[in-house]
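Intended use. Records like the one below are meant for learning the mapping from a protein sequence to its folded structure. Do not use them to infer anything beyond what is encoded.
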Amino acid sequence: MSDQIARLSPLRRVRLRPDPWSLGALVIAALVLMPILSVLVLALTPEENIWPHLISTTLPRYLGNTVTMMAGVAVLASAVGAGAAWLVSMYRFPGVRWLEWLLLLPLAIPAYVGAYALVDFLEYAGPVQTGLRTLFGWHNARDYWFPEIRSRGAAVLVLSAALYPYVYLLSRAAFREQSGASYEVARALGAGPLALFWRVGLPLARPAIAAGAAIAMMETVNDFGVVEYFAVQTLTAGIFSVWLEGGNAGGAAQIAGVILAVILALVALEKVSRRNLRFHNLGRHHRPLVPVPLEGAAGWAATAACALPVATGFVLPVGVILSHALANSGGWADPGLVRALIHTLSAGGIAAVLTVAAGLFLVYGVRLTGRALPRLLLPVTTIGYAAPGAVLGVGLLIPMAAADNALADTWVGLFGVDPGLLMTGSAFAIVYAYAVRFFAIAQGAADAAMGRIAPSLPMAARSLGRSARGTLTAVYLPLIRTSVGTALLLVFVDCVKELPATLLLRPFNYNTLATRVYDKASLENLADAAPAALLVCLVGLVAVGLLARANR
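Structure written out for the chain above:
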């Protein structure tokens, strides 16, 4: 046996050595997957098993509300997003070129900001009810009926208004990729506008609509600010209740495990629903769609139909927040706002740089190595984007707190000085959670950008003596710097808006813009929350502008 090993060729011996790129890729994948695995371990081995209590009391309510909200948001966001995409793709009407991009603007508004603005606008002391009382001479709430604002239905409306652009963006691309010949044949057979949509457009765009609806449902599960403000008890709200109010980390992990199961079931259902759907365009026969002009009342009706989601999801929240921000000019000089801005820029910036760097390293390492394990782990690392922030908070805080305490005790025993909580007592845990949550964005951008580079270029660099690192810096990075910059910006913007993970992982007296908005608005102090909310929205607008530019 020893003779056989001795006779191995030098190349074979080199392949048996640890590959630093493969090892690095495995380490990054392990760090990304660790919070998810931690949640599963904690859920299966809790210190206090309250699973029977959860099943017999609150879990059915949490799960029922979550599923109901997911279904409601999926239906409403799909109807609005796909309907608007159909109108701007198939017809020409007044303002369509502006509305085509304005329909993306609600992506810049965090859903919790929309919730605060809607309640402020429609509550008893708000402008709507005040105007109604003045107009009709009513004196108090007993004189008239007004729908309940803080309800599950209102939460579905707010989330749908914030999330329909996901469906709209994917549906619009699907409609525009369809051949105009299909519609010409349908019209020749007597199909009217409604039949064209139901029998031709909708079936062909169904995969894109399903994908957009799945993203909207995942974001609904992740939401905490809206459901907490409207007092809707979902699974995510249950994590905060069981852990922070009940003091049971194991129970919170068990609820987090249920959320993971719901998310995985949703992803599997979405993939199965599209498994047998295959639509192809033959290049020789493909003709682009020719939009049909709409004039008169029909054209203005289409304009109003597309303008309504923009008004609900963008104009209303921004208008309410802006009015409060301008009325409270002294709030802009509040030291708390300045600290929250610094924390947001530092934590989000560091997380964006680390996430994109790790995504580049992982994708490049997988491309270099011939080993199967890193290639298998590459798509698995995107699961963090599907995992809600509250789940990541549970998966990170409990093991990190234990590690922090063990490290502090060891340090005190060795040196007699207490170093404090190095990970959970700083922004480290928040940055880690951001990196895991949005790693899929960085990884996807790096993989797509590197895939567009001809293989002959890096091969030529290697043949000229460049190392793997030299090829990355001299060939890949100059060619993909635009994609890298886009990924940095998108990850940063998502970090700025992230609320559940930040709430769970922030140290004492540590605020970001998102948590400051939540803290102030939860105390019904929208005036002080407005400056921070406006800053969050402005950052989101940058990302929407970039997205619109990329999809022109």
